Amino acid sequence: MPSHIKLAYLPSPAGVKLRLTAKGNLKSELEAETAHQIDLLQQLIGPYIYGYDGLELEQAIGHLLKEKGRTLATAESCTGGAVAALVTSVSGSSAYFLGSVVAYSNEVKEKLLGVKFSTLEKYGAVSEQTVIEMAEGVRHSLGSDIGIATTGVAGPTGGTSEKPVGTVWIAYSDATKTIAKKLPLTSERSLNIKLTVTQVLNLLRENLI
Predict the structure, then answer these.
(1) Cα–Cα dist 198/61, whole Å
(2) Hey, where are the domains in the chain?
(3) Angle 128-174-120 (CA atoms, 0-180°, nearest 5)?
(4) Distance CA 23, CA 7 (A)
(5) pLDDT over 90 at 84, yes or no
(6) What single-letter DSSP state applies at residue 200?
(7) CATH homologous superfamily for 57-208?
(8) Confidence of residue 14 (pLDDT cuts 50, 70, 90)
């Protein structure tokens, strides 16, 4: 980039904000140059950009759900309702968010989400098979177009050699497909919850676009 335009990286568990700062004497030229640099950034990282001018991920998702006319429900285990809390922090979210099931125990996963006992017995609560049934189950139970789900070992205790602390599964489900993704995260509980919320909302965003 030109020496009078600087790019700053502002990372957080919710993503990385990029800030362009231009200095000079003629505002119109600086605005044009900055717009050109933004175009170049879009060519490099377009699929990862969810908004501009301070737009947060949960707001971007709200806009997409409204635009597509889709409704959302969430099934959460390791995040304990944090996904639903962030989604509903956006004013007007009642237009697209139907509700959430915080299924912390296996019994609740079975009774409210329809996860099969055989699935839990064979694969465990923290597994691809379980998170798929959670996402599909909450979609059917609450009558939403889309269901997303989280299950994992948030820590700092509860891990095993097979499923260490930080092992998390997330899923997205709609009428045509269900997608699950494994996240190998950290040993820090609060950070794992934040990262899981960001990742499952981004999985939703990717499928909406």
Answers:
(1) 11
(2) 5-48, 57-208
(3) 25
(4) 12
(5) yes
(6) H
(7) CinA-like (3.90.950.20)
(8) confident
